[in-house]
Specification:
Strand content: 15-25%
CATH architecture of the largest domain: Sandwich
CATH superfamily of the largest domain: Regulatory protein AraC
Number of domains: 2
Radius of gyration: 23 Å
Strand order of the largest sheet: 1-8-3-6-10
Distance between the termini: 30 Å
Helix content: 40-55%
Structural class: alpha+beta
Number of strands: 10
Length: about 280
């Protein structure tokens, strides 16, 4: 399995574009990786049959052979910056001569006509749609990369491909370390960080934020990248690790403090999170 730092990008094309509801925006697949950064909204982006809203500074990330369509009102065209690239094979790139297949034709490229896409959990963890509103440097970097692609006279490929590499690593960090901004979620997270053992229900958390359960769950996921109970579980395991390292409490006492009915589910959860049982973890501190 590849790690993201191993990728070798090659930017085949980078251009400003205007989506206006034309035929070429209908359901299709592309044979290379593509990034579409919209300056404004509204509109919709369909990816794998799911429609996502397009707003200001919305980034769309498409993998090779991933079905997608742009749903843009011709009366309200949307401008974007588009980047087509190879991420794993700069020696034999395809993005300089990208290809599309439009429905209803079968979505299938010959192997040598589709960009290399080795297994990479880091890349798989990146979302297909992401707002860059809170990350102005990531937005401006895409704009700058597009300009440099057309304006650079010397070493253009090396320059823009190097920028693409830095940008993608920066985006990965933004996705996996983003900070919540909604004050209701921020307030709840502060409480959970202090009281990870609180076993209140999701309904109770939603009520404390003044929201319905479904909206609370969606907002929490968008703000933190995790479901509410998964987030709490992460905090529980972190608190358990701290208690094992910094206190003389027995494992049973720690399990009880964290709200577990017995030591057995606690040991199972902790071992899954840290790859060692609580006792082994304490011995290795």
């Amino acid at each position: 399995m590849k790690r993201l730092h191993e990728f070798e990008p090659y930017v085949g094309d980078a251009l400003p574009y205007l989506y206006d509801g034309g035929y070429e925006e209908k359901l299709r697949v592309c044979n290379v990786f593509a990034f579409h950064l919209f300056n404004d909204g509204p509109g919709e982006m369909e990816i794998d049959g799911i429609k996502h809203p397009i707003g200001p500074k919305t980034l769309v990330f498409l993998r090779p052979n991933q079905p997608h369509a742009f749903h843009i009102d011709a009366k309200h065209p949307l401008s974007s910056y588009n980047i087509y690239c190879d991420l794993w094979d700069k020696e034999h790139p395809l993005s300089g001569n990208r290809a599309f297949i439009y429905a209803p034709a079968p979505f299938s490229f010959e192997t040598n006509r589709q960009a290399a896409m080795p297994t990479c959990a880091d890349l798989d963890s990146l979302p297909s749609v992401f707002s860059l509103q809170s990350y102005p440097w990531l937005y401006e970097s895409i704009v700058q990369l597009t300009r440099l692609f057309h304006d650079t006279l010397y070493y253009r490929d090396e320059l823009v491909s190097g920028l693409m590499r830095s940008w993608l690593l920066g985006w990965y960090n933004a996705v996996h370390s983003r900070q919540p901004s909604d004050y209701r979620i921020v307030r709840l997270l502060a409480y959970l960080n202090e009281n990870p053992e609180d076993r209140a229900s999701i309904d109770a958390w939603a009520a404390s934020c003044g929201m319905k359960r479904s909206y609370f769950h969606a907002l929490f996921l968008r703000e933190t990248g995790m479901a509410p109970k998964a987030y709490q579980h992460k905090l529980l395991m972190r608190r358990a690790a701290n208690l094992l390292q910094e206190s003389e409490l027995t494992v049973t006492a720690i399990a009880d403090r964290l709200g577990y009915p017995s030591i057995h589910p606690f040991t199972r959860h902790f071992t899954a999170a840290y790859g060692a049982s609580p006792r082994q973890f304490r011995l290795n501190r």
